[in-house]
Amino acid sequence: MDFSFSEEQRLVAETMRAFARDVLLPKYAYWDRTGELPREQFLKMGQIGLLGLRVPEEHGGQEVDAITAGIAIEAAASGDFNCCYAILIACFAGEMLGRYAPEQVSAEWLPGMAAGEKIICTCLTEPQGGSDAVGIRARAVRDGGDYVISGEKASITLVMAGDAGIVFAKTDPGAGARGVTAFLVPFDLPGVSRSAYSDLGSRGIARGSLFLDEVRIPARYRIGEEGGAFSRVMHTFDYTRALIGLMCLGAAQASLAETVEYLKNRQSFGKPLSKYQGVTFPLADWAAKMEMARWLCFRTLWLRDQGLPHTSEAAMCKMQCPDIAAGAIHECLLLHGHYGYTTDYPQEQRLRDVIGQQIADGTTQIQKMIVAREIFGRDFV
Questions:
Q1: Fewer CB within 10 A of the terminal residue: the chain, N end or C end?
Q2: Class of domain 121-227
Q3: Which fold, 230-380?
Q4: Which of 58, 57, 56, 83 has the alpha carbon at shortest distance from 72?
Q5: Contact 182, 166 (CB under 8 A)
Q6: Is 70 exceeded by the pLDDT of residue 36?
């Protein structure tokens, strides 16, 4: 067993932490207060390779191993949690298009995405059942050399700013999971419309719904063969769920570090607050939980790099890390006293932002079902 990172990975971590501190963190609150999309940050992230982590090199990416991608997103989240959504969906699109899309489509879209110039959204969730991916109702009907797609997708990250989406639709409604097909749908096509949400947190990521009214796309925009999308998206989720875990923990680590400095410098009854066990012990508890969760995430990514099964481990990452991160940040907010309840410190924003990941990409209940199936066997759960 070797828990050390390579010299190259340590350099990535150091570079990304400096970028997060100097470039991302200073404007973290700005996007929340204004609701503006952080496009300028996306371009900077593209320049240093953050949006091409899983994009093939021939299309302008780095195609790094899964562990290195985890190191990068964890560090970036310590600066701006919401900018990490661009990394996350770029990793998803890089995996899906780079592996399964026709070369012509990959060459058309991936270089711009890796550079931060194009946004490719993930369009799976639907309003009637976000966690029931098999039960999607969007339809794609073959018509000669085209497909005609109709339906509604909900809770799509960056949809209002997106240039295209990987849309999952039924090509064979009676085939269950085997009837789901993926398509790359440019958002400037006739029949595409969008509406924005007003969210509690992550206000700069332009979340909303996508409406497809008989949208006609060429058959070459199909990603893989008909009916093969469900297993691919589940396999990709096994990767992104570990990244989400590290993304949440990166934000919590930033709050913990800030709170430690605050408690060292704030006095009560003539002593630093850090002298009181009632203040330091809660942070010790959260630090232990965060460290355990962090290594679960990296082990999951290591398993992926080795080509070993990691579905259960990925579900554990998604099941535990957002809860741990939200709890740790909440504790940090409380330990800042009345200042923590103001917008002068980033604790309240991080708490609002991280809570969203307790819902997105499969709720805690769904992750527990996945883990239970792995423990008991599918026939017994």
A1: N
A2: mainly beta
A3: Butyryl-CoA Dehydrogenase, subunit A; domain 3 (1.20.140)
A4: 83
A5: yes
A6: yes
